[in-house]
Amino acid sequence: MSKSNEILNLIKNIEINCHTQEIRLADILRQCKSLAYKLNYSPFKTWVNYELTGYSEGIELPDYRILEYVPIFGDLQGLHFGNIVFLNQRPLGIKSTFPREHIESLHTRRFFESVAALQAIIESSNGESIPFSLPMSVYPHLETYTNASLVRAYRLVSFDVVVGILDTIKTRILDFTLEIQDLQLDLEYDNSNTIDSIFKEFILKSPNIYYINTIHNVGSMNQNPGSFSIDGSVSGNVNNVQGDGNRVVQGDTTMAGDRNINTGGGNYNERIERDYIQGNYYAAGQPQSLAQAAAEIQQLLKQLEQTYPTTTTSQQMVVAAEAINRIESNPTLKKRVINAVKEGGLAAFEKAIDNPAGAFIVGAIKGWQEVEIED
């Protein structure tokens, strides 16, 4: 068998193994190590070795191993009527004593572990979100929102995200092998420049795992609670402005006929004879400030739900923790939320949010109120 055919057979075996669930990624990478030596291509050798043995602190990590906007949680211990109680997986905030320039790194998890170590972490998690402990040196800078003591603090990472890191590695290996086969290279000769281009494009390409805010087009108004119906005619210009709060700017619009609005808390009906003036409508008995603040939190949660899964309670807590951190980092929004709750009450605010994460956010607001009282 020629050297070229030997390499092509190895590449084909790697491709097949990438499609086989029973084959562990570490075994596929060992095949890739053999391929790297047969191709005599050093960057591929280096990448494979790091994935097999883990990255050291001084080595630059691939982007798919860096996770941003990871929420901080903690396990607490306190006294309740003389009894010791434990509160696990409670969202934590960051006190003003923590250097602002390092907050981003505190919410970033870098995965230096080998693929075998990551696989072991996944298998021991039982499908639940995975805690990665923080150093005790940051504990004094973390806010618990209660009088309980902080026992352990950690970044909480979704199970699916860690699985996704391994899946990304496997997919890039598959793309690399498929591209080499597609080009039908004669591997008897030096193809280092071509292999280098394929490696950079398919192994070192941009990541597909990231905690970022994404904007999605709204496909239908059915996404929104309540309904809006118009009997009659509408004329003029209506401009939708994408931006903070997704404001809708009404132009020179006139309307005639009957207008029925379902506010989610009862139907609002009126007949319009002349010009229609754009305004905000709230359910009867609900303070305007509370409704506006709740709408802002709803929008924030919807944005986070595009990035974080929300199937389980622990996943909902992750979303809530990140929402709390976002609110805390925006003093104006935080004050507006606290004032709205003062006006309408915690229970009404939680109901207005209408989201499973609402209970956790309300717990944080209650803690903020208690701090205000103490001050």
State the main characteristics:
4-stranded antiparallel beta sheet; 375 residues; alpha+beta
Topology:
Blueprint: H1 3-18, H2 25-39, H3 42-53, E1 66-67, E2 72-80, E3 83-91, E4 93-94, H4 103-106, E5 109-110, H5 115-124, E6 130-133, E7 142-143, E8 149-157, H6 159-183, H7 192-202, E9 227-235, E10 238-240, E11 248-250, E12 254-262, E13 267-272, H8 288-305, H9 313-328, H10 331-344, H11 346-353, H12 358-374
Antiparallel strand pairs: 1-5, 2-3, 2-8, 4-7, 6-8, 9-12, 10-11, 12-13
Helix pairs in contact: 1-2, 1-6, 2-3, 5-6, 6-7, 8-9, 8-10, 8-11, 9-12, 10-11, 11-12
Largest sheet: 4 strands, antiparallel
Structural class, from helix and strand content?
A: alpha+beta
Strand content: 15-25%
CA radius of gyration is 27 Å
Kindly report the spatial arrangement of strands forming the biggest sheet: 3-2-8-6
User: How many helices does DSSP assign?
Assistant: 12
Total strand segments:
13
Approximate helicity band: 40-55%
Poorly predicted runs are 206-285
| Shape designation | elongated
Give helix and strand order, one letter per element, not per position: HHHEEEEHEHEEEHHEEEEEHHHHH
* Gap between N and C termini: 81 Å
Q: Look at the structure and give the mean pLDDT.
A: 78
